[in-house]
Design a protein that fits this description.
The chain is built from five helices and six strands, in the order ββαβαββαααβ. The protein is α/β, with parallel strands linked by helices and 171 residues long.
Length: 171
């Protein structure tokens, strides 16, 4: 079973670490349905603030804007699958737009207003990052449709297996 390391860099987030790792393991078990899945090796999952993710976005992708998910490929030859970095703040904006003064540039991974709850939205971001590591892309419209289809299949699989992490946000 893959090692999943979890870093919580968001002061108000209380992640269900065990369930988040189980989510990754469930996707790994069904990798054949998703281009063979994420490469082998340790996978890092980081929960960050908007500011933290924006710093990574600026430092590594030369774009200082906010985003919801950034994925870094690892080196399977050295036992590293990659890293999925997600913004808990982006999920808050998505689910509770009335709480945020900042407009949500990412809108929703579905392209419309989200009907998820906070935990479901963060789960979607994790799935999105895992799919990037599996080889999916979402830059061109055709690729984006394939990514959205894979996201929907993955979320359906997670619901069917009862793998639904609960994430809490406290002030």
């Amino acid at each position: 079973m893959r090692v999943v390391t979890i870093h919580n860099g968001h002061p108000g987030l209380r992640p269900d670490r065990r369930a988040a790792a189980a989510l990754i393991h469930t996707l790994d078990t069904h990798a054949g349905k998703f281009l063979g899945g994420c490469p082998p090796g340790e996978l890092s999952l980081a929960f960050l603030t908007d500011a933290g993710l924006a710093r990574l976005h600026a430092d590594f992708l030369d774009d200082p804007g906010i985003t919801d998910v950034i994925t870094f490929a690892g080196d399977p030859a050295h036992g590293l699958a990659g890293e999925i970095c997600v913004s808990a703040d982006a999920a808050v904006r998505q689910i509770y737009p009335e709480r945020s003064r900042r407009a949500s540039p990412e809108r929703s991974r579905r392209g419309k207003a989200s009907k998820n709850n906070f935990s479901d939205e963060l789960t979607l971001y994790i799935v999105h990052g895992w799919l990037h590591l599996a080889g999916y892309d979402d830059r061109a419209p055709r690729e984006k449709r394939k990514m959205r289809s894979a996201e929907a299949r993955a979320l359906k699989l997670l619901r069917a297996t009862g793998c639904r992490p609960r994430f809490r946000l406290v002030k």
